[in-house]
Design a protein that fits this description.
444 residues, mainly beta, 7-stranded mixed sheet, 3 helices
């Protein structure tokens, strides 16, 4: 298929993503796409083009942005030799000077080894997404690994980062499910959020002892002085932490699908609200005696005096009654808890009970609770019933954001403050309750 340089005599200089996605997405019969010379800007989406084998870029194209997803037979993106901004090496897309690796076609990858060419300085966004390689070596010339550069490289078992890499961007190795260990060289100065999300086999991280920003201890990633736990891939309970540890950061355990039990040392005085988010089989959190900030009861994490529920382990099931000392449900305490089905009052539970199987959670609230903090129940996609006790006065920002199944909802008269976006994307709340919510805050 050829994209013309003109239509009815009118020059085509730009092909937008909206136009081209309408033409190509889902078109399984298209095998080859050629852009005619004269087209300057290409913004294209190729999705589910199951027979697409090649894309041909003309000399005139000065701006190319392609989104390619599920094109399993794509062997090459071929660039005209006179193009001033882009080039290809055997169908692999690079910048003209070959310092940026832009896209590696899925069908060209195999289960062997790929050595990124010397001279490349940046592995760009989605550059090797979904590739089948089992090992990849990154040359000394590479300084930046961009967001999602190795997304869904599920066969990747080994990657060698040479000294020269200075930045590892967001989600760089997301869903590299076969990756077992990784070494951070001395040159790395910045590791951004979620670099190893979904790396289910990752068990060991090491850091060059000369790295000025990062360190490792027993296979986990820390800042240099080991006061902050940045990422811990280990799954066995009882593993060691350095005595210097004071903070567990946002990505420390987020999304860890192997961790069952955790013990918080006495020296830890700061835990990010999302540190244990999406830990789907985590059932037990304990706290060392003498910790001045945190405590635990029945495997649930609280502040020291148990007035705030800090984190509810997402692997727990059954009916859980909150202690009557609790006045607030903390930020992100139940975020992404897919097992949570009902939140009801203690009075209602005593009256009618609550059915619960071994795959779900019912949360039972006493009248001591007054505040639901930001994102406390955000993304609880199977939460169906919400009944708050008449002690609750405040629902903070996004506290029930995207609880898409929420339908049965009782809002007590005691609630006087509802923050913006509290019930955003909760589409099934009854009309009468919704009117009461909007009366308190039209932006809820």
């Amino acid at each position: 298929m050829t994209v013309p340089a003109s239509i009815d005599g009118v020059p085509v200089t730009r092909v937008s993503n909206t136009a081209i996605s309408a033409v190509f997405s889902g078109r399984s019969a298209v095998k080859n796409v050629t852009y005619s010379d004269g087209i300057q800007k290409i913004r294209a989406s190729f999705e589910d083009c199951e027979r697409l084998e090649s894309i041909n870029i003309p000399a005139s194209a000065t701006e190319v942005e392609t989104a390619i997803d599920h094109c399993p037979l794509l062997m090459g993106i071929n660039v005209h030799k006179d193009n001033p901004n882009y080039a290809d090496i055997d169908g692999v897309l690079f910048s003209k000077d070959k310092t940026k690796l832009l896209f590696f076609p899925y069908a060209k990858s195999d289960t062997g080894h790929y050595a990124i060419p010397e001279g490349v300085t940046q592995i760009c966004i989605f550059a090797l997404e979904g590739c089948l390689f089992t090992s990849i070596s990154v040359p000394v010339s590479v300084s930046r690994i961009s967001t999602d550069a190795f997304l869904n490289c599920r066969n990747l078992e080994n990657i060698k980062l040479n000294d020269g890499v200075t930045e590892i961007d967001y989600n760089a190795f997301e869903n590299c499910t076969s990756l077992e260990e990784i070494h951070i060289p001395a040159s790395v100065k910045k590791i951004r959020w979620h670099p190893f999300t979904g790396c289910e086999s990752l068990r060991w991280i090491t850091v060059d002892e000369n790295n000025p920003e990062y360190a490792s201890f027993e296979g986990a990633l820390y800042n240099k002085d080991k006061t902050k736990l940045l990422y811990d891939p280990r799954s066995l309970p009882g593993h060691d932490y350095p005595e210097s540890l004071t903070e567990i950061t946002r990505d420390a355990y987020r999304g860890n699908k192997n961790i069952v039990s955790l013990h918080i040392p006495a020296g830890v005085t700061k835990i990010h609200p999302e540190a244990f988010c999406k830990c789907e089989i985590l059932t037990n959190i304990t706290v060392e005696e003498g910790n001045p900030v945190y405590s635990s009861a029945d495997g649930v994490l609280f502040n020291k005096d148990k007035t705030e529920l800090v984190c509810f382990p997402q692997g727990k099931t059954g009916n859980y009654t909150l202690p009557d000392s609790v006045t607030s449900i903390g930020t992100a305490a139940f975020m992404d808890c897919s097992k949570l089905k009902k939140v009801i009052t203690l009075d209602q539970f005593r009256k009618d009970g609550a059915d619960c199987d071994d795959s779900s959670i019912n949360l039972i609230l006493p009248k001591s609770v007054t505040v639901i903090e930001p994102q406390a129940f955000a993304f609880c996609k199977w939460l169906e019933t919400l009944e708050l006790p008449d002690s609750v006065t405040t629902l903070q920002y996004q506290s029930f954001w995207e609880c898409q199944a929420l339908e049965a909802f009782t809002l007590p008269d005691s609630v006087t403050e509802i923050a913006d976006d509290t019930f955003m994307f909760c589409h099934y709340i009854g009309k009468r309750t919704w009117e009461r919510v909007l009366k308190i805050n039209p932006n809820a």
